[in-house]
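Predict the holo structure. Ligand: thiamine diphosphate.
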Amino acid sequence: MPSLVQRVRDADVLLVLGAALGDTETGGYQWLDRATTASRLVHVHVDGQTLGALYPPQMAVQAHPATVAMELARRAPPAGEASWSDWTKAARADQETFMQPVSVSGAVNLSLVFGELRSQLPASALVSNGAGNYAAWLHRFFSHDAFPTQVAPGSGAMGYAVPAAIAAKLNFPQREVVCVAGDGCFLMSSQELATAAALKLPMVFLVINNGCYGTIRMHQAARFPERPMATTLSNPDFVALGKAFGLAAWRVTETADFAAALREARAHRGPALIELVTSIQDISPGRSLSAAEVAER
Ligand SMILES: Cc1ncc(C[n+]2csc(CCOP(=O)(O)OP(=O)(O)O)c2C)c(N)n1
């Protein structure tokens, strides 16, 4: 099967809805060639300054991606099978394969955890995240099946997940809200648990604890193998921390225990926290930290 990157390279037209086409979406500016975008990129972004800033588009559309998506959904599809429908069906099948769980070396498998989160939550639930490699697991194995349900920082800022989830719950009290934060990300704004406790907000905080600023460790492993620097975290006991703020709290050290912990946390009448203890080896889906080091040696 051609990789997603190959599909992007081969496509006659790229309709980019809402992505800024920065570092992350372009594999460090490797996947898209500036020389080709002027003849095949239709770029939709809400911020006019983003359009054309990195890649010259053939057509720049300053609009909210949701508006454009809803407008496109109103159009009648081409009559009969389009000549490219095998290609799009194959791409869709590849995407579904990509979302299948992967194996990990630690005892908590985030691909299964986020699959369980998807199957328990209603489609209307709001899920927040900040920045860190844990978010790559979330975005790959949890699908947002309704709009708008994703509460995430376009800037890639850590510390966003906790206060954003609280704001989401205050604005949408009827909806379920789950905050997903890495240990590093969570500790940047965890004092806001006091707000969730004071307002008795029924919501769930997931803390993905790999004992590390994992994203930074991954880059260190790739560039300076076996020379990690200042990325190991001396974490508090997250369950004790949650309880100290007045939350109900659970620690999950085996994948199989997550489903029951999540059910209890969701049924709790106030804020609840679940710490998931993961291995730093499982740095990203399908790639271990040691493999990242070996690849660069
Ligand atoms: C406010 C802020 N500071 C620093 C960074 C740079 N940064 C990106 S990811 C990351 C580490 C994230 O660690 P953690 O939340 O534990 O998640 P992990 O990568 O381990 O899954 C850092 C320091 C950032 N994105 N935002």
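The pocket of thiamine diphosphate is lined by residues 131-134, 156-159, 182-185, 208, 210, 212-216 (CB under 6 Å). The first strand starts at residue 14 and ends at 17.
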